[in-house]
Specification:
By secondary structure, the protein is of the alpha/beta class. The chain contains 13 helices and 8 strands. Strand 5 (about 240-245) and strand 6 form a beta hairpin. About 40% of the residues are buried.
């Protein structure tokens, strides 16, 4: 475990590192994939606030089916299209598929289920969703055509899932993948993440988006029973692809078997940070003393606080003011929350202490 080695370096005590490993082996807590991605590549403090204190932070829900209208359409249209036309996709006969027909069928299904009436959707928004969904279906089919041969996947053995909840007690991560095509026999899989934007904007693909797709690939590697999930992703056995309706690169991937992205990403280092972030976030949402007792917790200190709660140096800390670094950052969606919970050094009053005891009560095991 990466956090084990970090705590040993921090405290100089193998007992403290072993305690961290023991806690992670026993606790059943899991962290949202988006929080792990954000903590690994953008700001570990923001991720801590979301997971530890319940701050919103603009992070998306992990409840299947609660995404945008485009996500809901594609959740229905993509598996139907794939099952009907997998032979055409494998042979590259993509132009003969009526993608819009599947999109319209999905919209009709959503209407019948009453899902489109939950919140008002004007005609312009609806038309844009249909247009983007149609384009993204084609882009996804193209990606599958280009990947099946490279991965050696047998389309007749494959299974397709959408809005699927993946979780791992080993990685301590949970999340909902947009689409998954897997061949359990060859132990190969393709992860698809839909990326949409507002109105006429081109959806941007940021570092957290890439990191989140890699997390889902790690979860799928464990699902396919790889002993080394990192190696399975690094070698391209599990390939995550981000699909968007427009932009310079509509099928965005950093996998070595399907590199379409222009930016250079060290996948091995990214996976290291993702696992380190998930382990750290799991530790801070766990009642440490329930596992190792008060004496060892008091022994494993770093400065004024517990070594188990110290943010690892290898994880990013947002964009603080320089010389010397100080937080909260000037530009942040949860700046006030960061100041209140993390960087206010006043002594807590009795109400504050009671609030923290209540918070720790929910961590338990």
């Amino acid at each position: 475990m990466y956090i084990e080695n970090y705590i040993i370096r921090l405290t100089g005590s193998k007992a403290c590192g072993n305690a961290a490993r023991e806690i992670l082996e026993k606790t059943s807590h899991m962290i949202k994939a988006r929080s792990v991605a954000w903590g690994a590549v953008r700001c570990i403090f923001s991720a801590r606030l979301v997971e530890e204190m319940g701050v919103g932070g603009g992070f998306r829900s992990v409840v299947p089916g609660k995404g945008s209208l485009v996500h809901q359409i594609l959740a229905l249209a993509f598996p139907r299209l794939y099952l009907d036309h997998r032979s055409s996709i494998v042979s590259g006969e993509l132009s003969g598929i009526d993608y819009k027909e599947y999109v319209n069928e999905a919209v009709e299904t959503l209407e019948e289920l009453g899902l489109l009436s939950i919140r008002p959707i004007d005609q312009r928004t609806r038309d844009a969703a249909v247009r983007d969904s149609t384009i993204m279906l084609y882009e996804a089919a193209t990606a599958l055509y280009e990947l099946f041969g490279r991965l050696g996947m047998d389309p007749e053995r494959t299974r397709v899932y959408t809005e699927m909840h993946l979780m791992s007690y080993k990685l301590h991560v949970r999340g909902v993948v947009d689409a998954l095509i897997e061949d359990a026999v060859s132990r190969k899989a393709i992860i698809i993440e839909w990326k949409t934007g507002e109105a006429q904007e081109t959806p941007s693909i940021d570092d957290p988006d890439i990191a989140q797709a890699i997390i889902y690939a790690l979860l799928e590697a464990e699902r396919l029973d790889y002993s080394d999930v990192s190696k399975a992703v690094i070698e391209g056995n599990i390939v995550p692809v981000i699909i968007r309706p427009k932009g310079r690169i509509t099928r965005y991937c950093i996998s070595p078997v399907y590199t379409t992205a222009r930016r250079t990403v060290d996948i091995k280092n990214l996976i290291y940070k993702l696992i380190l972030a998930s382990e750290h976030l799991t530790l801070i949402t766990t009642d440490i003393r329930r596992f190792i007792g008060k004496n060892l917790d008091k022994l494993c200190r770093s400065g004024r606080g517990s070594a188990f709660r110290r943010a690892p140096d290898d994880l990013p800390r947002g964009n603080p003011r320089k010389e010397p670094p100080s937080w909260p950052c000037k530009a942040c969606a949860i700046r006030d929350e960061c100041l209140f919970y993390l960087f206010t050094y006043e002594d807590p009053d009795e109400v504050d202490k009671l609030a923290w005891r209540t918070r720790f009560a929910i961590y338990a095991y």
